[in-house]
Amino acid sequence: MEGIEYEIHDNRYHNIELNLSDSELVVMRVIWTLGEASADQINIELVKTYKWSLSTVKTFLARLVKKKVLINSKVSRKYIYRPTLSEDEAIDLMTKEFLRKICAKKHSDVIVEMIDLTQFTDDTKRKVEVCLKDKESIEEVKCDCLNNMQYCSC
């Protein structure tokens, strides 16, 4: 699916696919941090690490506007870019996108790997423990590979 459909239910986006490239995500992280920014401000932050030219940054910004992840408005002679969704909403969407790309039987393996790779405070560890404790178990996770083809290796 190209772009974003704005279908909101309980203040959450559903059936939306962000499909952000790694570079677009880098630009978005700067904008989420700053709240809003011009191409020049974004470039100042990114040139330190990525050595991107201003025109490269503007190309990414144009793509993000086209995908409706950013909106822009002209202030004086510059465009100011603002996100259309919060970083938390984007993380939620990207997580759902990622899980749709792998077999449902592998989701728990992904979660275990993410836990292994993540640092936790006592509070965040308790939050994960409560979430897992409250999660209802099911008898069997059904494979969703290739229309449940018989030769799935899950």
UniProtKB/TrEMBL annotation:
InterPro entries: BlaI_family, WH-like_DNA-bd_sf, WH_DNA-bd_sf. The lineage of its organism: Bacteria, Bacillati, Bacillota, Bacilli, Lactobacillales. Pfam families: Penicillinase_R. Belongs to the BlaI transcriptional regulatory family. Gene3D superfamilies: Winged helix-like DNA-binding domain superfamily/Winged helix DNA-binding domain. One of its GO terms (biological process) is negative regulation of DNA-templated transcription. Keywords: DNA-binding, Transcription, Transcription regulation. GO terms for molecular function: DNA binding. Coiled coil: none annotated. This is BlaI/MecI/CopY family transcriptional regulator. SUPFAM superfamilies: Winged helix' DNA-binding domain. It comes from Lactococcus petauri.
